[in-house]
Amino acid sequence: MRYALYREPTPAEREVFVRRRKLATLQRIFAERELALGDLRGQLLSFEGRYLRQVGLLYKELDEWQRKRNELHARPGDTPDFSDIADVPLAEQRAHIAQTVRALFREVAKRLHPDFAADAEDEQRRTRLMAQANDAARRGDRLALERMLRGFDAVLLLNSEQAIEAELEFLAAQISELHLAITQSEKECVDLDRSEMAELQRACITAALEGRDLLAEMAVRVKGLIGIAMRQYELDLDKIKNPPRGALESSLLSAETNISFRFVNGKRQQR
Fold it and tell me: Is residue 234 part of a domain?
């Protein structure tokens, strides 16, 4: 009778297996959360596009008429509105982070690519690590890529004691990252579900069940406001071009009174 040789795994090796299973479970959970988040994003983006076409463009036109009316009454030296450029620093910061992530991923690929594997076992490990690096790059996770660069040493063999300790550390970091990513994904789902656009979408669904088109109703109201804003602009412009005679005389009298007041305070009185 033949007996197969069996080596009892060390505690460190058992822990590697446990963490690998835990990591695989968390990866599956994270993929499910990301799928749900992607579906929710897609639904809201589709609805937002419909809202912008039916109502958003009308609000933009209304804002334009209100801006024109404000310009009629603007005074020299009024503070300009820089709200449109408020997000420029944030956009530059995001572009810098994306560039940093791409550079880190290229460096990780140089060290971990399966083409540089010493044997089949090393190739499997490199393939698994490259998949994790791709996932980190897709999520823009700069810290995960930096940890991969610090924690990988190509000269270590998988069956060495040093390599097992390094993999334990790496798996612990990945598990921690996934816990955080799952929490963030769930929070984003909740935030999106509570957003104004989601609330409006639910209101539109409720109205549709009652046979109403809520966006069409909103568009009608905004068109009415645009008509009012246009009429107010025309009236204000007409007042500026053709001021009433009484108003002109009143303004001249006020100016004369102010001149006399300044001379009296300046100790030079006019008759």
Answer: no
**Residue 198: CB partners within 8 Å, gap ≥ 6?**
44, 192
pLDDT at 75 over 60: yes
Rounded Cα–Cα distance for residues 201 and 219 (Å) = 15
Total domains present in the chain: 1
Burial degree of 123 (CB within 10 A; 0-12, 13-18, 19+): middle
Token readout for 237 is: 């412009």
pLDDT of 64: 93
139: Cα separation from own chain's centroid:
13
More confident residue, 230 or 152: 230
CA distance 174 to 25: 12
Burial of 46 (0-12, 13-18, 19+ CB in 10 A): exposed
Residue 226 domain-assigned (yes or no): no
Contact criterion met (CB below 8 Å) for 160 and 125: no
Q: For residue 54, what is the DSSP state?
A: I
Residue with more model confidence, 39 or 261: 39
Q: Give the model's pLDDT for residue 53.
A: 93
Contact 134, 122 (CB under 8 A): no
Predicted TM-score (pTM) of this structure = 0.54
Helices (H), the chain: 11-51, 57-72, 88-112, 120-139, 142-151, 161-193, 196-209, 214-241, 245-265
User: Per the domain annotation, does 240 fall within a domain?
Assistant: no
> Is 112 domain-assigned?
yes
| Chain-centroid distance, C-alpha 214 | 27
Q: Which domain holds residue 96?
A: 11-53+87-209
With bands split at pLDDT 50, 70 and 90, how would you rate the model's confidence at 191? Answer: very high
pLDDT, tens digit (0-9, with 9 covering 90-100), for 221-241 = 999 999 999 999 898 888 888
